[in-house]
Amino acid sequence: MKKATVLVVDDDQDLLTATRILLRPKVKEVIVEHNPEKLLNILEKHSVDILLLDMNFKSAINTGNEGLYWLGKVKENFPAVQVVMITAYGAVDLAVKSLKQGAADFIVKPWQNEQLLSTLQGLMDEHKPAQANVKSKPLVSDQGIVGKSAIMNDLFYKLDKVSPTEANILILGENGTGKDLIANAIHQRSLRNKNPFIKVDVGSLTETLFESELFGYKKGAFTDAREDRKGRFENADSGTLFLDEIGNINLQQQAKLLSVLQNRAVVPLGSSQPVAVDIRLISATNVPLKALADESRFRKDLIYRINTLEIQVPALRERTDDIPLLANHFLDFYNKKYHKNIAGLEADALQKLKQYHFPGNVRELQYSIERAVIMSDQSSLCADDILFSPIESVPETTSSSADFSSHNLEEMERKAIKSAIERYNGNISKAAKELGLTRAALYRRLEKYNL
């Protein structure tokens, strides 16, 4: 890097000053500029190796896309200059788009100095876009995330960028997509990875357990409180707290959670003394963000607290290219678990997998492969070995017009029950309440529809 000339273009004067101080002893020359309209003129006069370019400027050329505009101009006129986009948490998706338009890399602010220096050093060492290697090979991470499709490579790249920050992250995705694996991957890539990673399925906590589990309690706070106990917030101190199924907590629980996040302190049950906590919060839900924005269901002020950045985990049907990779990954795993030696999947088995819509996502694929490994006595898996979950399959429609209306009504009821059960993560009481049924009546319908 000692031979590099770096140009930094950003309308934040404090950032320019700090970056210049950081880079001055590390590189040959640092040039800073707050006005992007002078960018091309500077590049004409100086031999710049790396350009650090902000994505948004107050002097709006194309509001929200100024960085992309100037990136295009630079790549058109100075293609040899390597451009690193500077972005805030909320514009990471736009920054990923910039990679496809010629940027070498992007960095999220506020950044760690070591992270910026590492990015610049990597560009100088390779003399090629830093993301090239990321796009060229499948990734099987230590956390069990498997994928090589374009949509997953974008996700992996985003994880690498946002994980070292302290941003609170909301993970969105359908059931079975692996949101818990993504949360763990963020923690493992973060600066808190030597400290605790605490997971709580808040959607399954009852009203009475919510406070005691999250905030802890003092001896004598209630009948069975025989000793002091720390809550999950305190257990996660200096580390990461992962609140799964956060979309299923009620408004009263949301108010209590918001208070803790605002004050960065918990008050255990039976105590009046707040206990300071230092946590990085990751939340997950299968509820779409638009549905969460309904204030009758979820507080907007809490959404802003938990959602500095959201990460959308794709459904398996959106990344069918990954199905063979995932299937073989699970085959290897269950070969070892069940002491089998199945060599692989036949072409007809892979074709059957790729043609299926997988409403249960990766979880359903995993269970399908596990069942096939257990039941097969052959040296490889064929199409007949692959059976999909009856829980997820839709009953075949009848061709008889006589019971067409009846069938539709039953199918509507089945779908409504299935949706409620999934929304409340299997909590029968909550699902029954939403459906206007007693628990007994709901159990009868679950049996009727084989759910």
Question: What keyword list fits this structure?
Answer:
alpha/beta, 451 residues, five-stranded parallel beta sheet, 14 strands, 19 helices
Mean pLDDT: 84
Output the strand order for the largest sheet.
2-1-3-4-5
Number of strands: 14
Count of helical segments?
19
Helix percent band: 40-55%
**Class of secondary structure makeup:** alpha/beta
Supply Rg: 26 Å
Could you give the topology of this structure?
Layout: E1 5-9, H1 13-23, E2 29-33, H2 39-45, E3 50-54, H3 66-77, E4 82-87, H4 92-100, E5 105-108, H5 113-126, H6 132-136, E6 139-140, E7 146-147, H7 150-162, E8 169-172, H8 179-189, E9 197-201, H9 207-215, H10 232-235, E10 240-244, H11 251-263, E11 265-266, E12 275-276, E13 280-285, H12 289-292, H13 300-306, E14 309-312, H14 323-337, H15 347-355, H16 361-375, H17 404-423, H18 428-435, H19 439-448
Parallel strand pairs: 1-2, 1-3, 3-4, 4-5, 8-13, 8-14, 9-10, 10-13
Antiparallel strand pairs: 6-7, 11-12
Helix pairs in contact: 14-16, 17-18, 18-19
